[in-house]
Structure formats: C-alpha cells, structure tokens
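ok here's the first one, seq then struct tokens
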Amino acid sequence: MKAYRLLTVLCCPGMLLAAAVSFHPGEDAVEVRVDGKAFTTFHYAAKWDKPFLHPLRTASGAIVTRRWPVETKTGEIEDHTWHRGLWWTHGDVNGVDYWRELGPAKTGKLVLRGKPRTRGNRLEAVCDFIAPDGQRHGSVLQQFAFGSQDGILLVDVTVSVRADAGKGITMGDTEEGSLGFRFSDDFREDRGATLRNAEGLQGTKAIWGKRAKWVDYSIVRDGKRLGVAIFDHPSNPRHPTYWHARGYGLNAANPFGVRDFTRDKSQNGKIDIAAGGTLRFRYRVAIHEGASPEPLWESFAKVK
C-alpha cells in the first residue's frame, strides 16, 4: 500500500461565513457559542478516552445528539458508551483499537497535550495515541471551525494524523471508525427518521458501507424538519468515503473499512503513513432546521 508523507498544514478548516463565535473555558471543557447562543461544548476530561463535542444544537436550540453517557435522560437508549456527540478516532491504529472502549487493557486512548487552543472561530487540540502498554504511536491534530450560513449551523473538521513517534502508522481496515456522530433516539430509523446519501439512496440497508459525498439524517420534531448532514471533502483520501451509517442513530465517515464494508476479503482498506508523515481529512457537519443542507455541499467542495 502507498505510504503517505504529506505536509502538516495548520490552516483554518474551511472558510465559513461570519458569525459571532465565542469560547468559554471551564473545567476540562470549552463551551462554544454562536451568535450568543449555546451551540456545543468540547469535552476533554481525563475520564473520557477521547475528546468530543457534546451536545450539538440547531440554530433554535434543539439538541440533536444523544445525552447519555455525558448526561442522563430518562428512557434514553444506553448502548455504545463510546458514542458521544461528534468525535474522531479509529478502531485500528497500529493494531490498537481507539474507537471502542473495552477497558485500559484492551483499547487505547487519545490523550490531550495540554489544553485546547482557540483563535477566531477555531478550536484545536493535539492528542497522542497512547496504547494499552503505554507506548505512544503518534498524534492527531483536531481542528474545529464553527459558523453558520442561512440558518444552518456548521462545524468544519480537519483531522491530521501524524506519524511523529519515530515510526510509521498503519490505519487498519475496520468498520469501527472514524468521524462519528451519535444522534438522539428520535433519529432512529425505526422511529421514522430519514437516512439518505448523495447518490439518492435511502435507508440504512441501502447506504451502510456505500460510498457517497455526503449522508444526511433528518426527522420531523414538533412539526419542523431538522437534521444533520456530514460532507466528505473532495481532497480526502478515497473520496467519496464509505459510511458506517446505522439505523439506530450512528453516522460515521470511514475511508478505511473497505474489506468490512464490501464483505470482500481480498480487499484491504488500510492506509500507511510513513514515519514523519501526516494524513489529513476534512469534513463539514451541517446542522439544519427547515432548509436543505444540499446547496452547502458545492461551496464546501470548492474550499481549498
């Protein structure tokens, strides 16, 4: 497989239209407000195996992510403890699972170096891949740029996986990854949610494991349609990406799980990053309410 040795680019993840974005640090968390209203919070306490944004809201304040396990909500489904809001990690990094959380002897952790940094509309954090045996296998720079357009709240995500531990990194083939979003329970397909992709396919059976430029989950709540679309940037390796899109409320962009998604054992979706190299991915998360997010795909695709 081709080894990637790319330049690390510390640019702002996407050019978003002007919005009043402010950051409010707390204990092991940073609240993000857009136009003066609470949008989300970046959580990075040591008790979590990886950092994440939670909860996420529409422009009118409707929460679209599952509350548990960060909060308790009566009657909410409590599966997959590691599904929290919006996050990035992978289930096979040099053979170590950083996606699931099966205990310190079985799975690795993404450990922040210091505190996240904020500037303008951007928050960024550097995390080390720490394996169960304590070895560091590299790092990942996570950058989030926040904004809004036509009433749609946006998060532009740039993920730079860096082989900076004196050795290469292999991102292995598994369906367990990589940019994940866990929806509130009313986004379940068996409760009436609509799951569709850019190819016009609809429903988890049709879109799971398929390649597409974007996938959108939407519902009607209190008479209003709202939802979340995730866009895969054309510059990403293996664009359009594969999707780990589950009817129970998980949507994840995953370019690595080719064998798992195709069920073809002759395939291998691993990507090798040479020592000193960087592998970069860019995504846009569009949280919409009423308006369709599709027109935003073209503008995002043109961002260099």
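and now the second one, same deal
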Amino acid sequence: MALAATAQNGHFQGRVVRFTRHAFAGAFRLFSGRLSFGIVRIPPLRQFIRSTARHRRVLATRVAGPLALATALLALSANASGATAQGDLAVPRPFEVGAGLSGNYLAAIVAGSERDTLAAATFFNEALRVDPKNRDLIDRAFVASLANGSIDQAAPLAKQVLTHDRGNGLARLTLAVDHIENDRWAPARAELARGGGDRSKDITSTLLTAWTYAGAGDTRRALATLDTLKEDVFVVFRDYHAALIADLGGDVAVAQRRFAAAYGAEHNLLRVVDAYGRFLASHGHVDDARKVYKDFSEVLPNHPTIVAAIAALDAGKPLPPFVQNARQGAGEALFGLGSSGGRQGDELASLIYLRMSLNLAPQNALAIITLADVYERMKQGETAIDLYESVPKDDPLRVNADVQAALLLETLGKSKEATEHLQKVVAAHPENEEALTALGNLQRSRKMFSEASETYSRVLSLQKMPDKSQWILYYYRGIVNERNKHWPQAEADLKKALELNPDQPLVLNYLGYSWVDQGANLDEAFKMLRRAVDLRQRDGYVVDSLGWAYYRLGRYNDAVNELEKAIDLKPSDPVINDHLGDAYWRVGRKLEAQFQWNHARDLNPEPEELPKILDKIKNGLPDKPALAGGSLSGG
C-alpha cells in the first residue's frame, strides 16, 4: 500500500553524514540565520493515512499554508514569479522584489527562516545586485541559490566566496559538481582535493573523486579510490559504487563481485536491488534478476519500481542500467548521501545534496520524490507539487507522485483541484491501489461516506488473498459505514480488521466505544477500551474514549479521572475539553465545567458541535442524562 523505502532506507546513519560536515561548515546559518545540520530521515512517498483515534472523529487533512514573506511588511516594487514549474498543477506564488538593499535583505532573511528557497535565493541575489562586494551577501546568496537548485547561479558565487574564504568546502564541492556536469574531470578532482578533510573519512569527496576517474576512463584508479573507504559504515556505499563503475568500465567480473557484496550486506535497499537486478538481466541472468526482485517484494510488496521491473523481465524487455555515464554516477552518489540521513528541522543538507544530484542526473525519479518530500517537511507544498509534476511521465513512480501531488493540493486548501486530479489518476489507473486508497481517504475526510465505502471496496476487491495489511482498509470502511449509519456492515468490517490485526489499538478503540455507545457487549467493549489505553497510553484520543465511555454509563467519577488524563495529553482538543466539562458538571464541579466548555468553544470545534457547547455554557446540562445502557460486571 504505502510506498516505502524509496531511497536508502536508513541503514546509513549519522556517521556517514558526519564525515561530510566540513563541506557545509558555517553554510547553513547563512541561509536562515542559524546552523542546522543533522541526519536526514529516509522519506517514503507516504500513503494518505490519517488515523481516527477517537470514535466519530474523522480527520480532515488541511494544514496552514506557507507563512507570508517579509514583503507583506515592506513596500516593495518590481515583480518576480514564484512558480518553479509550469505543469498542470503548478501553484503560483507571486511575490515582489524591491530596488532597495534593506527591504530585499530582510525579505530574504524571513524567506530563509521559512525555508522558502525560491524567495530566499531571489531576494538575496537582488540585494547582492545593489551591494555586490558585500561578503555576507555573497555567502548568503550562494547558499540560497544552491538550496534552490540554481547551480549555474551558485557556481560563480562559489568563486566569489573562495576569494575571501579559501577553505570553504561547500564552495569547492559546488565547483566540482559544475566541472563534473561539463565532463571536466581533472578540474573537478582538483576542487575536491582542495576541499579539505581526511579522504579516508570524507565519503562525499571520495565517491565523487572516484567518479571523476571513471569519467576519464581510468576504472582502476576509480576503484582504488573507493577502496580507501575502510570503515564498516561505508561498506555498502563503497561496493555499490565500485560495482557501478566496474560495469560502466566493462569489467563484468569485478562488477559482479562488488554487486554481490553490496547486495549481500544490504539486500533490502531498493536502489541496490534495482541496480543489481538490472546488471544481472543485462548480462543474461534473467532468472537471477527475477529472484532478486521477488525477494525484495517479500519484504515490501507492490513497490512500483519492482513491479515494473518484473513485468519487463516477464515480457522479455531490456532493463538498461540507470547509471550510464560518470555524470549520472556522481549524481547517484550525491543522491545516496542526500537521502541517507536527517531529521525534522535539519533538512537543508539533504536538500543541497539532492539538488546537486538532480543537476547531474535530472531524470532520477527517486531523487525528485525524495526532494519533494523534504520540501513537504519544510511546509513548502507548492514547490513539492512542482517537483512531483516533474517526475518523468513514463517512470513507474509517476502515479505515486501524482497521488502525492493531489494530497498536497488538499493540504493547501485546493480541494476541488485535489479531487479532480486524483479522479483523473484513478481513471487512468483503475487498479492502482494507492491511488484508490488516497481517493477513499479524501472522500472520508469530506464526509462523503457512501462514496468512500465504495472506493475502499474497490481496493479490497483487487486484493485476492487475505493479508494483515488489509486491516487498515477494513478499519476505514468500518468508520465510513458507521458514520453512514450502516452499523451491521461497520461492525463486520471492524471485526475483520481485528481478525487481521488482533491487538490494533485504533480498532479496539473504535469498536469498543461503539458498543458502549449502543449499550451492547459491555464487558467485552471495556476490555477493548482498556487494552487500547494500555497500548496507547500517551494518546489523548484513546484515553478520551475510555473516559467518555464511563460517562455514557453514568460512572462520572471514573469519567473525570480518565478525561483529566486525556486533557493533559491533548489540552487543545475541543472535543476532550467538552467531554471533561460534561463530566465535571455531573460530579458537581460546575465552575470548572463552565471553564472547560468555554475553552472548547474557543478551540474551533466542529460547526455542528458549537451550538451545543454554547447552549451548555448558557444553561448547563439537563438533570436526567441519557445513558448508554446497563451495568458492568466487575467494572
């Protein structure tokens, strides 16, 4: 279902990235005013799964759009277009640049702090035009241009940086990449050598230097350079790139040995699997290639890249290597490094590596998708959409990119465009499970429950064999059937979800609460709710369900105990505040009840709930509450 492991799946942890720091030292503070570098997490192309942790809560997916640039505060003139691409889904981001230094500089600082790379690069470069000798502006414009993928603009700036900072590793790396792009192998190697750092520990410089030798036709020197990487953490990188270089240089025996070594060390890395499979197939070992792909499918079923490769093998079609020259090989190295580590808030290093990678290998769909995910995490949805739109139309990952673009449109508040785009994807690919599931989730978030139920049923009809992963589909279909007042079908779906995943807390929570609300199966229902709380003790919604179940049975003191725990976990949730207010009222704590209801009113509750809350604030609760049903044995 969800597309996972699109990149190097996290095996290469922070140690790999740590040895590249010298190239970036001091650069990141120039972009947004602070130093930020970390371990870049491996971004999957996420399936649109928004869990409903509490009964009757079906979450929508809208989030706030990007923060305004400093141009909202400054009177600026001239015009600059903010759209980075002009595809069908391109979301225009117009902003203005001014003629003055201070306005553009302040706007650039704000844009950088918001990780808007396009605006930051534009404003810094405009400021530099007014004050071209300013070293700080040169440095900042350089990093911003690089982060925005403008290598042609960054390379001249890198030369200016080096006039006052000869040891700037990022400037050296930028010039090296520019040389590699233009097949200038010796100058590229010279810049990498001047970048500083211990070659035995500097994986970036070592990999790129090896590829410069490969570009010059010196396979032996290329492999010898890679073999200077001795540490265990580098083994897969080293052998993987050695295999690619040996294959490019025509040394099939060495390529076979190195591919086998990399695959043996990490046989669940998508990129290694795909490269090895292509190598085997291109050298006549089709059955071995098929086995490599199918073994991966056992770990991660239905990955589009793997499915497409197996289909090509079955049809007797060739599988060309995705690295066909040294430029692409260097791009592959930068892609691997850019996607091999990181965490939320420290995306800039990953972004720069991926931008450099795409400058050398622009058709690498995995790199595009990984970069788009980085922009998503930086809350730059418009740029991410442009990137998803740039995935090659014939690439197996294009459908998944289209799905993700549609979901991003939804988060940007463009619901109509999101639905239309996703419906087009489904119409063109009626058996694509991810596209159908995403459509079902959009329909569910908009309370189109009948349509969502039908869509989830379509997905399940495509899956002929029962599988544990299907629990989420039955769970979602159970939710929409329950919301559509089709309880027998909903109950059957929720029971099926538990059959497939017996201890799933979300399902335990939903089914248990539903039974309590109906006054049915009370003993079993409370066992489910308590088990859900045991499994998700820090989930305020799940704890709220148990508390509200106690309330519905008239056990108000127990309700207060659980709901106070829930409010500690989710203090800003209007529903939990409303529930706690009701419980306080029933135990005679009426002043506190009024406080909670007022708080619930101010937390943007659902439109249909607001009149009820206002009535309680004015009139309190009726003396005789409607209870859900009988008593609990042993409760």
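notes on #2: Confidence is low (pLDDT under 50) at residues 1-86, 630-635. The CA atoms of residues 69 and 111 lie 6 Å apart.
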